[in-house]
Amino acid sequence: RRVLLLGEGNFSFAAALSETPGTHVVATCYESEEEAAGRGGAARSIRRLRASGAEVLFCVDCTKLKEYFLPGKGEFDRIYFNFPHCGRKAGVVKNRQLLARFFHSCAEVLAQEGEIHVALCNGQGGTPADQPRREWHNSWQIVAVAAGAGFILSDVHPFKAETIHGYKCTGYRSQDKSFCVEGALNHIFTRSTAPLCFMPVSCKTQLGSQKVSFQVPQVLVDKINRGFLEVNSSHPVRTIKEKLSAGLSQAFPLQNISSCIPLLHQGHPDGVCHSNIFWITLSLGQASSTEKISQGLANAVLCSRFGQDTDKNAEEGCSIPEQFYLRPSLLPHAQAIIKQRAFSPGTLQVLSGPVFRKCRITPHSMPVFHEMLIVLAISRGTENSCIQMLVDNIKTTVNSLHQGISGIKPSIILQEATSFGTELNDFAAFEWQLGEIQHFLCMGTDPDPSGSCVGVVRTAPDELNSHELVVVLVSLNLDLLAMLLCGICDWRMLWTSDRRFLRQFPEGELRLFKSFSLYPPSYVHDVSFWVPDGEEFDEVTFHTLARRVSGEMVVSIQLRDNFQQPGTGRRSLCYRVTFQSCDRALGCQEAAEMQLHFREEIQQHLAVTLR
């Protein structure tokens, strides 16, 4: 393991590290050998280093590392910079600039999965780990500075000088004097995944006798074909689906029918707000050769709300309409199965797959999630007992999973829809649009036992039931369940491309998630504009544009002001937009560029007048 140490004072830290087996140390300092050797104990440490086979270099500028270490010599697995400082009475701004240039320099000599260790005195870093914590403007803002060079803070822990044999800190105000390291912290940075490049993605499908294609909405490009539910997937969403299926199969015969579920629907879904739908325009023939083709995603199209045969429609002259839409729910496909009586009474039919809904930006509101839809036909008069049996089975499985992960028993509540007291989350609110609901299934833990709605229970409309049978449908949001069970606080983490996420769930094992990006910096920008006269402002589209422009880097949008001009009646809105990534580095400049692009997009697509 190649280890680089920068800015060594008396080389006592490097000397201690050189005794670690399997470690090749390259110890450097900014001063000349003559100046460095004059510090107390430095000459002895340098002799120890050289005797152990370590390299000792002088006059090394930490902001120009590629000038000293050529790529052919090998990259470093770890870089240490303990208590960096510009010297003398340099203020926080100069030290931030030093760190910024240092991180950019490290990017050129650090191994792909290497680490950068930066030790800072108590309060300097500006993270919540500092106790007490300085005001942000008076700190070194180390996480934001590192993000500008493509690094994320993956761990932070106390710098325990007393455990390092022979270590003595020195260099107070560029002098051979020690300084206080009580409460000091070691910050460990790793490389972030590269920013996503959203190339156009086109899906092809057979519609009747014609080949058609459609361009995937940009906000879904990195989510449309991830295969989380496939057999070889170890994603927690699939694990939870399999565990729930196994639990249900102990009480009921069960059949999975998740293959060949149409990705596209035709026509307008009853009762659903137009702005919540991802509308699609189909085109005949092959997709452009410049576009990336995603095969097998749209192998069928639901040509009406209750599913008609696509070949039959083609024979009868069913022309391709100008627009289709991505399925917002698996419910229409289940209703098609019910209408065709393609089920066995008493047998659970389980459908699962991703569904797509435009929604506002919140940590628990997602434009795509995996739905598990359970369909059960039962004898009339037994609905309540069967619903209770289904829900009890789901409760038992979820309780077992949660206790196995965290040791805490969650609160699983079946609430009457008419008595649902807490505010509906976006999942529950959209389910209301799809039709009448009998019960909400909510999951929570102390101190919020009422929790979040993770499922709904409904019976099929009367026209789909028979005199003898009633069909019960239970819809579960697998993504929300994964978040609550594994302690994932931001839905975007489920869709990260960073391999460190799935490494925490080997072979489908469910565990409490530990974030690999700590205290990500946030950047706040305000935007205000005049709304077109006489028009209702479409806030969902506003949020969707923010998602698209930022690549899901907007974590919050809050209405700050709603002003109506006296006399003219013109209305002005002001929103606060907060940019923050949960899994990759986001620098100040990148966020500012996103904000400028966002302003252009809302002006173009919402016809607002910027202020």
UniProtKB/TrEMBL annotation:
InterPro entries: aa-tRNA-synth_II/BPL/LPL, BMT5-like, Fdx_antiC-bd, Fdx_antiC-bd_sf, SAM-dependent_MTases_sf. It is found in: Mitochondrion matrix. Its main location: mitochondrion. Residues 518-611 form the FDX-ACB domain. It catalyses: tRNA(Phe) + L-phenylalanine + ATP = L-phenylalanyl-tRNA(Phe) + AMP + diphosphate + H(+). Its EC number is 6.1.1.20. Keywords: Aminoacyl-tRNA synthetase, ATP-binding, Ligase, Mitochondrion, Nucleotide-binding, Protein biosynthesis, Transit peptide. One of its GO terms (molecular function) is rRNA (uridine-N3-)-methyltransferase activity. One of its GO terms (biological process) is translation. It is an enzyme of class 6 (ligase). GO terms for cellular component: mitochondrial matrix. It holds the Pfam family FDX-ACB. This is phenylalanine--tRNA ligase. It comes from Anthoscopus minutus.
